[in-house]
Amino acid sequence: MLWCDGRPVDGPVPFDLADRGLLLGDGVFDTALALDGRIAFEDAHVVRLVAAAETLGFAVPPERVVEAMRALAGTAPRTAIRTTVTRGPGPRGIAPPTDTRPFLFASAAPARPALAFAPMRLHRTAIRRNETSPASRLKTLGYLDAVLAARDAAAAGFDETLFLNTEGRVACTGIGNLLAVTGRTLVTPSLEEGVLPGIVRAQVLSLAKGLGLAAEERPLPLDACLAADAVILTNSLRLVSPVTAIGDHALGSLDNPVVASLSRAIREAVAASCGMAPEAVS
Amino acid sequence: MLWCDGRPVDGPVPFDLADRGLLLGDGVFDTALALDGRIAFEDAHVVRLVAAAETLGFAVPPERVVEAMRALAGTAPRTAIRTTVTRGPGPRGIAPPTDTRPFLFASAAPARPALAFAPMRLHRTAIRRNETSPASRLKTLGYLDAVLAARDAAAAGFDETLFLNTEGRVACTGIGNLLAVTGRTLVTPSLEEGVLPGIVRAQVLSLAKGLGLAAEERPLPLDACLAADAVILTNSLRLVSPVTAIGDHALGSLDNPVVASLSRAIREAVAASCGMAPEAVS
Prior knowledge:
The structure is a homodimer. Chain A is an alpha+beta fold. Chain A has two domains: 2-111, Aminotransferase class 4, branched-chain amino acid transferase, N-terminal domain (D-amino Acid Aminotransferase, Chain A, domain 1, 2-Layer Sandwich); 120-280, Alpha-Beta Barrel (D-amino Acid Aminotransferase, Chain A, domain 2). Chain A has seven helices and 16 strands. Chain A has helices at 20-24, 42-56, 62-73, 144-155, 199-208, 222-226, 257-274, and strands at 2-4, 7-9, 13-15, 27-35, 38-39, 78-86, 103-110, 120-124, 160-164, 170-173, 177-182, 185-188, 214-217, 230-235, 239-246, 249-250. In chain A, a hairpin with a 2-residue loop joins strand 4 (27-35) and strand 5 (38-39). The radius of gyration of chain A is 19 Å and the shape is globular. Chains A and B meet through strand 3, helix 1, strand 6, strand 7 and helix 4 of A and strand 3, helix 1, strand 6, strand 7 and helix 4 of B. Strand 3 of chain A pairs antiparallel with strand 3 (13-15) of chain B.
């Protein structure tokens, strides 16, 4: 199901082929989980999308984002909502128009319950995450590196991809953030390392203290990540996924008690946000 | 003017919002110059676009590209044609569909004669060109780094931007290739450095020998670029632009005899390709 221009739509929509989202990847998006019509961590998703557009230099009214997301939230009992906003149409070339008319649309698809908390094995790609670009900290429409790396990962029999940044330190995967667990300490790459300020990443960091965990945002060397007791991948649909291997290096993430307690805490946070626990909705 | 789905169109077109070009930057494009209805270096543009799509893993029939470009070539006496091809629609997520239906469209706009051979001053950006990504060698839809860098360049009073790659060596600008001239030697970063195989870049390299010039594709350190007698930017609309400054470092590109002879040679090559010289068409 789709939402476009303030109303539900079905099938193709009239579209301006001069839209800079299509021509130049000049836009940002968000992926959120809704359970039984309520969006998990709704405010955080809206704030991040509006801020991302502002970083690119155009304004998106938050109420339009909320309207689109809520219109789709009840599409399925368990819904994945993607909300996209582009800078809108512009003249030939790369310079933005002075008169910006952002284009906002959203789509909904049933989210597979099996995705949440499912373990993953990460392939290592030679493509680096470019932390020198502001785009590395935004969920922009330019997702081709993740697409190419995912293709290679699948061909090699893995679920997803580990990106290092240009300095050779751990950045993220193509679909979510990474956190390494050593003892009772969590380490996740700081935003400057070229990572998205993930919504579930922020939740985990904020829940850590209540679980008696130390949480640190700082550069994460690959060696330290491989030597960790456990590694988790976070994103809005998978929530907390234990990473069981990075390349041929096995990790003890499935049996780690910290991962188990973080998973419980995120489950409860989603339940508090949506009024129902993720496992209650199929 | 627009060409879409095998026919001329005007205004918005019916568009599938699940198109991966829009959602993920999963597509490539080409910009070409046409004079009085004839496309300069047509074959090279078609071959590069088809090969780029193939690198991404989908097929575009070259005859459809030719059809679109030729349909628009006579729109104005001097026409800039942008031809875009996306992987087409796909299901939620980043994995490509098994049934690929590429979407091809093209647009035409009058090309300003003043663009060709115009001198440019380059700003230096902190954003690096990511040569570890195959996308750095393709004209993909993910152009946000160039957009952001161009915004900064304009704000600082420059025309365009110099990108270094992640190793700190010269890569390219946001809109074209760079070549450094020292004595009678041309040096341009090799493709592995993270640059597009530009059509005019290839023309310059192939014309060099006939002009008694040595032409080398190899890594180009920034120091060597700044110490060059001249630097030129090449692209399909600007052809050969003398770079008169990089940041606050002035370059003698305007008065350089090699730049003058390369400009003449490109003018003649365009004339041979289009049946008329660029300056004959306003």
